[in-house]
Amino acid sequence: MANTVLILLIHLDTRLHTPMYVFLKHLSFMDILNVSNIIPKMAHNYISGRKSITFAECGLQIFFYAIFVDSECLILVAMSYDRYVAICHPLRYSVLMNHRISLLLVVGCWIGGMINSIIHTTYVLLLPFCGTRVIDHFFCEIPAMLKLSCFDTSQYEEGIFVSAVIFLPIPLSIILASYSQILRSVLHMKSVEAQKKAFSTCSSHLAVVTMYYGSIIFTYMRPKSYHTPGQDKILAISYMILAPLLNPIIYSLRNKDVLGALKKVSGKALRH
Q1: Is the separation of the CB atoms in 244 and 72 below 8 Å?
Q2: How far apart are CA 16 and CA 9, in angstroms?
């Protein structure tokens, strides 16, 4: 609901038609789709008592899950770059980050996630599965699926590691570098109040980013033999449920522009 409200506010209020809120809108959209891809099926299985999923449904879960998670990893980088330009190079912001550039970055994030998803989904679905068909997880996650295969997946695990490096530590390093430059600029601010506000905002953003990337890194950058079902489920909850819940609160609902838009839109609705 929070992500849906945020998308509607950005769409309805022209003051929020800026690159930063373009990224936030797509982040919220990714979170909604990712949760909708997993939770309804999980809830249906729990309520009905039928803990089953067809092979086709499992393939679709993997495909869409990989798109949304990978695209979100990339769009968080675009958001950190946007904040870096806005705070460290405010006079050049309209040149370095305009509407056209923000749209190109968004499209690039979606395409990057889609290409990576197609590669991994195709490989996993072509694996031979023999013996037990019980997935010890609440959705079709790739590490859980690899455990069911009777084929040697060690080479593919190396491919997962390379893919994970591209989508996880490298983007995380860029985000941390951007925020370190932002904090450096903040320290040169003369206003103590502005410093406190900037530190509060940056620390909140970094906390969510660290939780999101950290849990995915721990899931996908370990060998198959080191995975345990309990750990994988807890880590999945961190980036599948907690991050989408916290993102609209941390990134936007504490933002004065968003709160102003909420008052404006709700005021119009009440008058009508």
Answers
A1: no
A2: 8
Say how far apart CA 78 and CA 83 lie, in whole Å.
Answer: 9
* Tokens 């509607």 sit on residue: 8
Q: Percent of the chain, pLDDT > 70?
A: 94
The answer on pLDDT for 39 being more than 90 is no
Q: Are 214 and 8 in contact (CB under 8 A)?
A: no
Q: Which residues contact 234 (CB under 8 A, 6 or more apart)?
A: none
Q: Please tell me what DSSP assigns to residue 149.
A: B
β-partners of residue 129 are: 149
Mean pLDDT of 254-261: 71
- Read off the tokens for 242: 């907690």
Structure tokens at 57: 């449904």
Separation between Cα atoms, residue 193 and residue 42, nearest integer Å: 46
Higher pLDDT residue, 114 or 210? 114
